């Protein structure tokens, strides 16, 4: 298991604390693996999700640290989204 993924799960669970997540999302991080976020929180997993957000490790780290807005990452082509765009937007609002 990647230290980057483990630290990301910890940070995401802190950000999600108390937030209601009505959908599921997967962050697919190139060369590292995947993290799933749903009503149970964040965990390292490659389970199916309503939406999959794909990016390289640098973009992913910048998004979860708050240095990069997920919408800007998508609009600039650094983040790709496959699946329910509404779910992606809900997740972006929770992580902001």
Description:
Helices cover 42% and strands 25% of the residues. With 96 residues, it is α+β, with helices and mostly antiparallel strands. The N and C termini lie far apart (26 Å).
Give a brief outline of the structure.
The protein has 96 residues and is an alpha+beta fold. It has helices at residues 3-16, 57-65, 70-75, 85-95, and strands spanning 25-29, 33-38, 41-44, 51-55, 80-83. The chain is globular and about 30 Å long.
Q: How would you describe this structure in keywords?
A:
25% strand; 5 strands; 96 residues; 42% helix
The helix content, as a percent range, equals: 40-55%
Q: Distance between the terminal alpha carbons, to the nearest Å?
A: 26 Å
Order of H and E elements = HEEEEHHEH
Show unreliable segments.
none
User: What oligomeric arrangement do these chains adopt?
Assistant: single chain
Q: Strand order, biggest sheet?
A: 3-2-1-4-5
Structural class: alpha+beta
Query: What gyration radius follows from the Cα positions, in whole Å?
Result: 12 Å
SS strand fraction? 25-35%
Largest sheet: 5 strands, mixed
Number of strands: 5
User: What is the number of helices?
Assistant: 4
Mean pLDDT: 90
Shape: globular
